[in-house]
Amino acid sequence: MALPIIMPRQGQSVESCIITAWNKKVGDTVEKGDILFSYETDKSSFDEPAPEGGKILAIFCEEGDDVPCLETVCVIGQDGEDFSAFIPKSDDAEESAPAAEAAPAAESAPAAVEATAPVAAAEITGAISPRAKILAAKTGADLLKAAPTGPNGRIIERDVQSLLDRGLTVSGAASEGYTTAVEGSGINGKVVLSDLAPKAAPAAAEAVAPMAEYVDEKLPNIRKVIAKSMHASLSTMAQLTLNTSFDATKLMAFRASLKGGAEKMGLANITLNDMVLYAVSRVLLNHRSLNAHYLDDTMRFFNTVNLGIAVDTDRGLLVPTVFGAEKLTLNGLSRAAKSVITEAQQGTISPDKLKGGTFTVTNLGSLGIESFTPVINPPQTGILGVDTITRRIKEVNGEDVSYPAMGLSLTFDHRALDGAPAAKFLKELCFALENFDLLLAK
Amino acid sequence: MPKSQYVDPGKAFDAGYIHFEDIPVCQYNKTLKEELKIYSKEDMMRIYRDMAIIREFETMLNEVKTKSCYNGVEYNNPGPAHLSIGQEASAVGEAYCLDINDLSFGSHRSHGEILAKGLSSIEKLDEKELYDIMKEFLGGSVLAVVEKHMNAGGNIKELAINFLLYGALAEIFARTTGFNRGLGGSMHAFFIPFGLMPNNAIVGASAPIALGAALYKRSNHKPGIVISNCGDGATGRGPVLESLNFASMDQITKLWGMDGKFSDGGMPILFNVFNNHYGMGGQTRGETMGFDMVARLGAGFNPTQMHAERVNGYDPLAVIDAVSRKKKLLLEGKGPALLDVVTYRVSGHSPSDSSTYRTAEEIEAWKAADPIVAFKAKLILGGVATEDDFAKMHEDITARMTEIMKLAINDEISPRMDLNKDPDAIASIMFSNEKVASMDPGREADVLCPKEECPRVKEIAGKIRTAKDEKGKPVSKMKMYNVTDGLFEPIIDKFYEDPTLIAYGEDNRDWGGAFGVYKKMTEAIPYHRFFNSPISESAIVGSAVGYAMCGGRAIVELMYADFIGCAGDEIFNQMAKWQAMSAGILKMPIVLRVSVGSKYGAQHSQDWTAICSHIPGLKVVFPSTPTDAKGLMTTALEGTDPVVFFESQRVYGFGEEFVKEGVPVGHFEIPFGEPDVKKEGKDVTILTIGAVLYRAMEAAKILEEKYGISAEVIDSRSIVPFNYEKVLESVKKTGKILIVGDACERNSVMRDMASNITEMAFDYLDGPPVVVGSRNWITPAFELEKSFFPQADWIIDALHEKIMPLPGHVAANNFTDLEKIERAKKGI
């Protein structure tokens, strides 16, 4: 039995995905688990493994195609199996959909047969009178060969009639996959299924590298999305950033103690960043204007903390969400954060996990950044940047004492709240971090 | 222009003077004592009672409008209420003199007149007649309410007063138990069995309608007179002035009659002006008019000066005195008459009137002269009744009015029309759709000779009823039965069949109509059924409406369709609307003939089918062949609905080219709404409106011969109603349709049809339905008309450019989208 492979639906809100690469081509033999193709949503990318072994009988989409979820992308099966039932239905025969690629008939030479150049397709504007359309549907007239004679290149009834007079029709079986005109081999030149040859494979040789000293690369979808949301964020909000630091002595000591006992206690590898996340999840609920969405004329305050965590990935910035962070233990939060960060970095995260944040934490401290201005992820009202640790001097009992100071950079939306409340949040957060043991005791 | 009246140049320039008689101004000076010799004390008390009832009725409405509460009963009435507080003596005085046969028409401020005339009729009818009228009216539904819910103490007259007040108020409050099922409302309430004819929300519109009622009485020898009530403001309106003239025209006394007898005399109509000094806020005397006194107008219309008089309308006895004298004159055949009844509207024009145009001092002064208070004082002084008698009367009236109001606002007893339950309630009364051969069956028609002896009938009998003879040779024009003959035949037949049928318009009689449709009919039909009207389009159409309201059938003619504008209100608001506004009580068997010209430039060549078909309530047809003209005219004359009958001057002389057997002899009807396939074809449909049919046939011929395309040509014939089935059937066959007509293309009937066809045949279309109409310009001179009206080659070019390019065809006319956009941008 031939097996259709559909475009999976990655998350409820996803309607279509873009095929980014084909690893297989028609005629290839695949093993179960082989990656057939890669695809991406606007936020994540995925690989589709073969659910079964077999031969690729047909591929219906090309790289770069935006394919509706659940639509058949390719068919795996055994040589000679009929897969016509799986050919995606096209709403409109004239639509410039990509040419279907079909396996050559078993006895044909394996070399791809070059499709015949379209006869009249180039002249087709897509316009067809309702009457002509219905007549064509009824008779199977080969519209791709129609020479439109109506006003503005419209196919009218007589054009269909002329096709019928010349016997130019398409068989029912072939009609669905037939999108590029070919000479028919059936009776009276009827296009039959066997006429639907695969298009010539893409030229094997890569195009010669350009001589110029630059390379144009189309922006990946995700980059476009990031660009758009960053620009929207800065152009529509009133953002400003407050910088502060706290004495991380105790925090670091606590972290060291955790490191020692983690394995015994079955704890995760709890990082300083996890502790910051934990403190934020606890303190944030006391500052509802920062755990909120600013929506035109409404503020939406959340009763739960859905913590967005900015993650640098190969594909660009992603912000997965840990939902209900305030209810998690430090260990639980740490595990949850690691899980979504890993998924984001691997590009396998569900788009549903890339939404719904109420506040975001971003960490450039590990890259030695001492202070920065994070950009808010709208419609959130704040984002906390975690900076690196530097040694600072403070006076203790008349003596200069050095201590590890960890920087915090809070960007907030001044439309949603004023400077003082934002500063109060930072102050409380610093206190909690400086007295992390007390926070845990709470 | 009768030949019997010689216009003598020897006398036309004679020197001399026009002499005027004095017009009496408030000359009434009888004492109560003198009047009591004529009228009994009971009469006097009844006059008072009627005034008091009107006052209370109007006061109640005023309270409802301004305070939403009358005598403790709360109600909100969003509809209009133009009250006549102050004018009661004028209304009651007039109605006192009228009998059941006398008809009264009024204005938007006519509650007082309705009640006065109703109360007067109740007094004059005997109890049995009265009860039968109430019982029969609208299936007894109005009577049932007052019989069930009010106690009249077994007194039929009291019951009838309850009936009158309730029927009127329920109408004002838009209840189905109102006199017109609530569809007329405050400004249009009426009750024909009491001689209470429709009132009108259009100022002055009742004048031509009342004229038509008088015409009905005059032409059909019916007893009674007609009162045309209006305000002084209405005397500024053309239709009123046209009616004063129409009613006064010489021919009525000089030419009308039978066998040399002119016994019926002048038009039995009294134009009664309730002169309350204001047309809304415009002061007639001193500001908006120049007549000083309305009565002066009489001197402008005929040598009798319309027997005009100015009367004190604050004294009911002065009004009775004047109206009874005028009525006597009218019954003697000396009409028409004109009364200027001086009164005052103490209430505002409407409750929203803040009286910015008059002083409080003025209102107070008129209040001090209150006609009801003054009459009461007079009666007390004269010993007719005591203060207590009046107090008791007022108490009764208030109690009755309160009871009536409670009934009229009770949603269960007096429900409104439920259009959710009965969605076709209004649709079903837009047309009466009846077939009535004679509006007065049994009565013999007034004619001058047997039909067979009518010269035109004899002439037609010798004509060939096809355009070509048996050998295919064109029949000579003189021998050929043409479109005018097709129109004439059913008209002359109906003249002999229906005694009420009359035909008039400009130049109808001796000329035979400007285009000869009525040629040689003078020998058969007497003047009072067939005459030349003055050049007064409003009065022509308006009088036909009044004529039809009284039960007659009329064919009126406007010569050119372009003159429709001159009779705009009469066609669009009166003729079209009265059947439905009367809840189907009135019928409107009127055929309004209008002719679409050519060769005569911008104001004499317009096809205005779109304007007429836009107005709900009119049937619109447009035949172009002798057979269709005959069949559709027959149907129009059999029916009871108003028909705007379009004709084309291009084709009056055309013979029958489509029906092989020729125009059928004898009675035959073509149902309205049915288009006709004039030529069968399979490749493209051409739907025509009017005389463009012949150019479409020419196009079809070229398409066939030059391009091998077979065109089906369908003549719409009717516009309202219209059955699309045949057209859709054709479009399903051909997939292509052009809609062609001589009207300017923008917003035309063609556009409407194209839109409907697109909706209904979309899946069958091989291209958009394309309209080929005239340019959106003025019609130029005849020599330039080919650039204005659609021609055969336009039709072919439109097909070529918009639907199906024709091999080898080069379009001479630009039907491209670009051109269309440009024209639309410029509004041309």
Summarize the structure.
Chain A has 442 residues and is of the alpha+beta class. Chain A is 24% helix and 24% strand.
Structural write-up:
- The complex is a heterodimer of chains A (442) and B (828).
- Chain A is of the alpha+beta class.
- Chain A has helices at residues 130-139, 157-165, 172-175, 221-236, 249-265, 272-283, 330-346, 419-434, 436-441; strands at 3-6, 16-22, 29-30, 35-40, 45-49, 54-59, 66-68, 72-77, 101-102, 239-247, 292-295, 298-301, 307-309, 311-313, 316-318, 321-322, 359-363, 382-396, 399-413.
- In chain A, helix 1 (130-139) packs parallel to helix 2, helix 6 crosses helix 7 and helix 6 crosses helix 8.
- In chain A, 38% of the residues are buried.
- Chain B is α/β, with parallel strands linked by helices.
- In chain B, 38% of the residues lie in helices and 11% in strands.
- Chain B is built from 27 helices and 21 strands.
- The two termini of chain B are 42 Å apart.
- The chains are: A alpha+beta (442), B alpha/beta (828).
- The interface between A and B is medium-sized, with 12 and 12 residues.
Question: What is the element layout, followed by pairings?
Answer:
The complex is a heterodimer of chains A (442) and B (828).
Chain A: E1 3-6, E2 16-22, E3 29-30, E4 35-40, E5 45-49, E6 54-59, E7 66-68, E8 72-77, E9 101-102, H1 130-139, H2 157-165, H3 172-175, H4 221-236, E10 239-247, H5 249-265, H6 272-283, E11 292-295, E12 298-301, E13 307-309, E14 311-313, E15 316-318, E16 321-322, H7 330-346, E17 359-363, E18 382-396, E19 399-413, H8 419-434, H9 436-441
Parallel strand pairs in A: 13-17, 17-18
Antiparallel strand pairs in A: 1-8, 2-4, 2-7, 3-6, 4-5, 6-8, 6-9, 10-19, 11-12, 13-16, 14-15, 18-19
Helix pairs in contact in A: 1-2, 6-7, 6-8
Chain B: H1 9-12, H2 32-38, H3 41-67, E1 69-70, E2 73-74, H4 88-96, E3 103-105, H5 111-124, H6 127-136, H7 141-149, H8 156-172, H9 206-219, E4 226-231, H10 238-248, H11 251-254, E5 269-275, E6 278-279, E7 282-283, E8 309-312, H12 316-331, E9 337-342, H13 360-368, H14 371-381, H15 387-409, H16 455-461, H17 483-497, E10 502-505, E11 530-532, H18 537-549, E12 554-560, H19 568-575, H20 578-581, E13 590-596, H21 609-614, E14 619-621, H22 626-638, E15 643-648, E16 676-679, E17 684-689, H23 693-707, E18 711-715, E19 718-720, H24 725-734, E20 737-744, H25 749-761, E21 770-774, H26 792-803, H27 817-826
